[in-house]
Amino acid sequence: TGEAEAARAAMGGSASLLPRELLREYQELTFLSKQEILLAYKRFSELLPKEERENACSARVPKSQILTLPELRANPFQHQICRVFSTSHNGDHSMSFEDFLDMLSVFSDSATSDVKSHYAFRIFDFDDDGTLDRKDLEKLVNCLTGQGEESRLSNAEMEQLIQNILEESDIDKDGTINLSEFQHVVSRSPDFARYGVLQ
Quick one: average pLDDT of 172-176? Predict the structure, then answer.
C-alpha cells in the first residue's frame, strides 16, 4: 500500500519497520504523530550497533549514546533526564525504544504543560525523594548558572536565592516544594518549568 511505502521511505528503506499495531499504540500513548514516531525509530536504530538494528524494539541504547543526541548534548540536566526516562533495572540509565519515545513525547511541543511540569519536577528532584529540598534547589541553581568559577554564586547569594524560591513556592511552609506546589508555581509562570529542560 501507499501508506506502507511512505513509512518505508521515512525509515530510509529499512526493512525493520515498526509493526503497524505498535505504531498505532505509540500514537495513542504519546504526543507524537506517526511521522515523528517513525523518525524516532530511525534515530533510535542509528544509535545501535548495525547487528542490533533489526531488533531495535527490543534493544537498549547505552546512556553514553543517548547523550550524543542534539537535544541532550548541551542540556545541563542531561544525566537527570536519562535517569528519569530510563526503565533500566540495573541503574545504567540505558534506554529502550519506549523510554526514548516517552522522552521525545515530553520534549514535544504537543505535550501538555501538566505533563512537562511533572517531568521537570522529577528532573529537578536530584535525590528522587518526591520533594525539592534545599540540596535539590542548590543543584538546580548550579546546573542553571553553570559550574564555572565566574558564574558560581557565593554562599550568601545561593542562600538568598533558595530562600526566595521557597518563599514563592513552599505553600505549606515545610521547607520543601512538593509536586502540587511546583505545578502551582508553574501554572502562574509556564516558562519556569521549561527552563530549557524540556525545550
Answer: 96
